[in-house]
Design a protein that fits this description.
- The chain has three domains: 111 residues, no CATH class; 167 residues, Jelly Rolls, CATH 2.60.120; 159 residues, no CATH class.
- The chain has six helices and 25 strands.
- Strands 1, 2, 3, 4, 5, 6, 7, 8, 9, 10, 11, 12, 13 and 14 form a 14-stranded mixed beta sheet that branches. Strands 16-17-20-25-22 form a five-stranded mixed beta sheet. Strands 15-21-24-23 form a four-stranded antiparallel beta sheet.
- Helix 1 packs across helix 2, helix 1 packs across helix 3 and helix 2 packs across helix 3.
- InterPro entries: FecR, Ferrdict_sens_TM.
- This is FecR protein.
- GO terms for molecular function: sigma factor antagonist activity.
């Protein structure tokens, strides 16, 4: 059947309406109809009209049948007229009752749609800040700027750079590329890959993060979760405490293991087995409790002249371990930090560039960044990453002698630097590599770390902004 309500409604929607009022709508069609009803008021008005017309036609059809039967039974016109008069009054009430029932049903339907819409599309989190030149994607579409609101089950991907997300319950989540999270609720996310750092205020206690194999519940803390490797998950606590337990086949199992400030766990999940007795748990070094390190924000990276970084590298504003590079916690990533604010060079310094070894002229204004690796003992680990900066990269200092000679010039007074020959990069015999892009705004590193050696490189960046 077709309803007479205008031609502005498309044929597909009309077909769905016909199927609905006639009771022959399948599940797929019901889903399509629900989406159409969400998209505009005119569709919901059309549904009310269709139900009204359908109810009227049903009543008219019933009256015609009753009149025919009445004529056969009574045969007398007067009596038939009297009966029809009574039936007309009855029909009027029936039509009104049917219409009221239809309107009530429609109201319930719209209330249900509104409830589903509110549940699905309510704002659960907001993209709070993004470092310049980042690529942030939500459900396949690029997000242009901070302030973007996130809803239930939306997939947030950091393809380049880094960003902060503020949950409606108050937790602040920092993500760097490459990473993916899915918004579960106002106080919970799923970390699908990459690294997540959470700062949870008291009012947001209970914030939950799930990975494929673990569940972490905050009890008032700052913590970090790394799920870059599908076979393992690392959880570390900067301050406060949280609980961690395994997730097997989508279900959290066992009691929570409590972690307090300075503690970290690594869950191992062999891909060939999901049995709990096959899962290993290692306690690992993480941070110095007394330092109470804070969560690093995208604003910190921007102030250091860093646009983005990815791969096996982590930016920090203060080294754990009391600032002693030899006492930094063992890590599977390299530390990246700003050593000195931009300054003028008052002596000639040799640096490695794409054109070979060159000397920096006196008076050159530069910013110094340090990349430092302290890997676990008895390990040979390969690492790679990329760093993009605001200014042009002049060159790097990567051998032990040059690093020690320039520690006083570029080094931070808050850092205790190692001395001796067991630092720097071995670019001649070891397969370490530093690659500077043609435009000199990014640097890629490929390192192979050996036990007893501190891979370290000083990156010098030109500063042209007189305000810096």
């Amino acid at each position: 059947m077709n309803t007479p309500a205008g031609n502005h409604i498309n044929h597909d929607f009309q077909s769905l309406l016909d199927a609905y009022v006639e009771g022959r709508l399948n599940e797929d069609e019901a889903a399509l109809l629900s989406e159409q009803l969400k998209s505009g008021v005119k569709y919901r008005q059309r549904l009310v009209e269709a139900m009204d017309v359908h109810a009227s036609l049903v009543e008219l059809s019933r009256d015609a049948v009753i009149s025919d039967v009445e004529q056969r039974l009574f045969g007398k016109a007067a009596e038939s007229s009297h009966k029809r008069s009574e039936l007309s009054i009855g029909k009027l009430w029936k039509t009104r009752l049917t219409l009221l029932a239809a309107l009530a049903a429609c109201a319930l339907l719209l209330a249900g749609v509104a409830g589903v819409y509110n549940y699905q599309y309510q704002t659960l989190a907001t993209l709070q800040s993004v470092i310049p030149n980042s690529q942030i994607v939500v459900d396949g579409s690029h997000v242009p700027s901070p302030g973007y609101t996130l809803h239930r089950n939306q997939l947030l991907s950091i393809e380049r750079g880094a960003a902060q997300v503020k949950m409606r319950d108050g937790a602040v989540v920092t993500l760097k590329s490459p990473s993916q999270i899915r918004i579960s609720s106002a106080g919970a996310v799923r970390l699908l890959s990459g690294e997540l750092r959470a700062e949870v205020p008291p009012r947001a206690i209970g914030f939950e993060v799930r990975t494929l194999h673990t569940e972490v519940v905050d009890w008032g803390t700052e913590f970090i979760i790394n799920a870059s490797d599908p076979a393992e998950t690392m959880i570390g606590v900067s301050k406060g405490r949280c609980g961690a337990r395994e997730v097997i086949n989508g279900n959290a199992v066992g009691n929570y293991i409590e972690l307090t400030a300075g503690m970290a766990l690594k869950f191992h999940h062999p891909p060939e087995s999901t049995k709990r007795d096959k899962t290993g748990i290692d306690w690992i070094n993480f941070v110095n409790v007394s330092e109470e390190p804070r969560v690093v924000t995208p604003q910190d990276w921007e102030q250091a002249g860093i646009h983005s970084f990815s791969g096996d590298v982590e930016f920090t504003t203060a080294l754990p371990g009391g600032g002693d590079l030899l006492k930094t916690p063992m890590s599977s990533t390299a530390y990246l930090l700003e050593e000195q604010l931009p300054q003028k060079i008052d002596e000639r310094i040799a640096v490695m560039t794409t054109e070979g070894v060159l000397e920096l002229p006196v008076g050159h204004r530069v910013r110094s960044l340090l990349l430092h690796v302290n890997q676990p003992p008895r390990s040979v680990i390969r690492m790679a990453g990329e760093i993009e900066v605001e200014g042009r990269i002049i060159g790097v200092i990567a051998d032990a002698d040059s690093l020690e000679k320039t520690d006083e010039t570029f080094g931070s007074p808050d850092i205790l630097y190692p001395s001796g020959s067991s630092r720097g990069l071995d670019l001649e015999w070891n397969p370490d590599a530093i690659l500077i892009s043609p435009d000199r705004h990014s640097l890629k590193f490929h390192l192979r770390h050996f036990d007893g050696w501190w891979d370290e490189v000083r990156i010098l960046v030109e500063v042209t902004d007189l305000n810096n």
